Each structure stands twice: as C-alpha cells, then as structure tokens.
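Q: Structure tokens for this one, please.
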Amino acid sequence: MLARTQVGGWEMVRWGKYGAWYLLMIVSFILVTFVHPPQTPEAVRHDL
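A: Here is the predicted structure, written as tokens:
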C-alpha cells in the first residue's frame, strides 16, 4: 500500500527538510554537551 504522495513515484527530499534535520542535529549536540560536558583525560582517569 502506497501513501498518496508515493503513487507517482519517488521524489527528492526538499531542501527545507535537510535544513530542519541539520538544525535538529545541532540542537541535540548542544543539549548533550550541556548534560555531559567534555572532560580532560586526567579528569576521566580520576573518576574511575
């Protein structure tokens, strides 16, 4: 079963969707960096 937009065949993703996906990646990276900030190798060794 095909969706209504797939009946005519496949088409390229629009540039706006690439922009939205890129923005999602950037925001996700920033949020993860806030939750788990980068540490120096010395700090990681002392945590063990």
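A few notes: The chain has a mean pLDDT of 84. The chain has one domain: 12-47.
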